[in-house]
């Protein structure tokens, strides 16, 4: 059968979006996740990234591959200058977008629409030739691929946060009168502004946030609220005070303890009354405790805790190495390192301080 092919002018530009089976299963589930496009912040401005919400669309299975193809109107990679890539994110996982150009033209067609009144002018003895019309042309394809396991939110998050160093701890002594804890909504708001420009899913951003002990802090002089990442020296100074307070007050960090009791021990309060000076911000203390408690969330009230021995030992060893002034060519004295490492661990964790136990 002969078909008459025509095309509209101009042709609508479209792109094919190839979805991996993993993402397709999520979109076809009873509760499909919300998708968003995220890119890194431009270097020329500090404005916040605007995420674009997408919804699942109809899909057709490609006969030659295991991926599924959907049609989507072509869009630019980002409406903001300075962003050179865009990632597609679910709430828990990140997928990269890769544009693939093809030398073959792909057209979207539809049955030819007969103009009004045409049927009345055609003699009944004439056979009408069926036709199709090309309405859009696809010159490239967007491939959606899961990010490699080596790609994490850690590096962009480190670059986005201001460093809170040991000098900040020494200068930022806060009295009880000065210390007004930020509300949970203020903390979430400040953290969300940072996450908006990190091109990874929220769950991956939260894991990286917890891993580096990031925290939201209010400057007592300027009143400015900002997100910070503590340096290795700052974390080491804070951890030494935590260990000292726990030891002097008989708090077993390997067993369940009240987090508020540990904080009271750290600030050396007598009979649970706050003294004049805080050794470091409470938000940094909370971040360190959450880092060392297995499966603890970054939000919510952490009333009770017990530190994970494996996580604590690994973290203190890494902290000791990172905070040292040694160069890559420096020779590590294993005995000295092991002794210093044990001094940073609770008594009941010290048997784990062996080089063989490091991952």
UniProtKB/TrEMBL annotation:
<protein>
    <submittedName>
        <fullName>Sister chromatid cohesion protein Dcc1, putative</fullName>
    </submittedName>
</protein>
<dbReference type="GO" id="GO:0000785">
    <property type="term" value="C:chromatin"/>
</dbReference>
<feature type="compositionally biased region" description="Low complexity">
    <location>
        <begin position="39"/>
        <end position="79"/>
    </location>
</feature>
<dbReference type="GO" id="GO:0000775">
    <property type="term" value="C:chromosome, centromeric region"/>
</dbReference>
<dbReference type="GO" id="GO:0031390">
    <property type="term" value="C:Ctf18 RFC-like complex"/>
</dbReference>
<dbReference type="GO" id="GO:0006260">
    <property type="term" value="P:DNA replication"/>
</dbReference>
<dbReference type="GO" id="GO:0034088">
    <property type="term" value="P:maintenance of mitotic sister chromatid cohesion"/>
</dbReference>
<comment type="similarity">
    <text>Belongs to the DCC1 family.</text>
</comment>
<keyword id="KW-0235">DNA replication</keyword>
<feature type="region of interest" description="Disordered">
    <location>
        <begin position="35"/>
        <end position="83"/>
    </location>
</feature>
<dbReference type="InterPro" id="IPR019128">
    <property type="entry name" value="Dcc1"/>
</dbReference>
<dbReference type="Pfam" id="PF09724">
    <property type="entry name" value="Dcc1"/>
</dbReference>
């Amino acid at each position: 059968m002969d078909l008459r092919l025509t095309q509209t002018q101009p042709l609508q530009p479209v792109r094919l979006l190839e979805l991996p089976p993993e993402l397709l299963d999520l979109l076809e589930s009873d509760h499909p996740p919300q998708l968003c496009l995220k890119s890194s912040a431009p270097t020329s401005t500090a404005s916040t990234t605007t995420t674009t919400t997408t919804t699942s669309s109809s899909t057709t299975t490609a006969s030659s591959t295991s991926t599924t193809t959907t049609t989507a109107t072509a869009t630019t990679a980002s409406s903001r200058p300075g962003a050179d890539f865009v990632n597609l994110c679910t709430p828990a996982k990140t997928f990269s977008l890769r544009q693939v150009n093809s030398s073959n033209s792909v057209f979207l067609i539809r049955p030819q629409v007969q103009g009004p009144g045409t049927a009345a002018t055609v003699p009944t003895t004439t056979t009408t030739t069926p036709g199709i019309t090309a309405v859009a042309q696809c010159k490239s394809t967007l491939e959606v691929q899961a990010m490699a396991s080596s790609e994490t939110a850690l590096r962009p998050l480190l670059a986005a946060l201001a460093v809170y160093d040991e000098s900040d701890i020494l200068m930022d002594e806060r009295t009880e009168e000065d210390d007004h804890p930020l509300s949970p909504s203020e903390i979430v708001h400040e953290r969300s502004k940072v996450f908006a420009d990190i091109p990874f899913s929220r769950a991956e951003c939260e894991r990286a946030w917890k891993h580096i002990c990031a925290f939201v802090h209010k400057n007592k002089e300027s009143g400015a609220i900002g997100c910070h990442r503590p340096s290795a020296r700052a974390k080491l100074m804070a951890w030494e005070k935590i260990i000292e307070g726990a030891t002097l007050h008989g708090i077993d960090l390997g067993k369940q303890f009240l987090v508020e009791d540990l904080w009271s021990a750290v600030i050396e309060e007598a009979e649970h009354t706050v003294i004049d000076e805080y050794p470091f911000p409470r938000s940094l203390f909370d971040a360190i405790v959450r880092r060392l408690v297995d499966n603890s969330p970054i939000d919510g009230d952490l009333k009770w805790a017990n530190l994970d021995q494996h996580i604590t030992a690994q973290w203190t060893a890494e902290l000791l190495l990172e905070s040292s002034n040694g160069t890559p060519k420096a020779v590590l004295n294993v005995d000295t390192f092991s002794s210093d490492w044990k001094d940073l661990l609770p008594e009941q964790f010290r048997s784990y301080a062996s080089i063989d136990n490091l991952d």
